[in-house]
Amino acid sequence: MTRENPPRATDKFDDDDYPAYTMGRAAEMIGSTPAFLRAVGEARLIVPLRSAGGHRRYSRYQLRIAARARELVDQGTPIDAACRIVILEDQLEEAQRLNEELRSNAAEPGRRG
Questions:
Q1: pLDDT above 80: residue 99
Q2: Whole-angstrom Cα distance, residue 52 to residue 46?
């Protein structure tokens, strides 16, 4: 009988969804301001988790999304439009991934679908 390994504290460093970054650090990492992060939060592009003290905390995945929106805003796109574009890009990427997965499964010999 094997026993599962208990989670290690360092496992959180590899988790793209772990809310590791404070607002100030997150803004610094993507080259924006805390106000920009609040704005993309208000546009519902990303929804930061809250610490026990009520402070916003961001994951690496959320920062990548916010950074993409920032690129669009820097190119002159209004923030609401930038958020909508990023959401649509994310949905398209997911649909393409699922499509490829379905094609791979259908191409496997002996699979019935």
A1: yes
A2: 19
Say whether domain 16-107 belongs to CATH 1.10.1660.10.
yes
Tokens at 43, concatenated: 């546009």
pLDDT tens, residue by residue, 4-32:
666 665 666 677 888 889 999 999 999 99
49-50 vs 56-58, strand pairing mode: antiparallel
Find the distance separating the first CA and the last CA of the chain, reported in whole Å.
36
pTM: 0.75
Calpha distance 1→65 (Å, rounded): 43
Q: Where are the beta strands (DSSP E) in the chain?
A: 21-22, 49-50, 56-58
The domain locations on the chain are 16-107
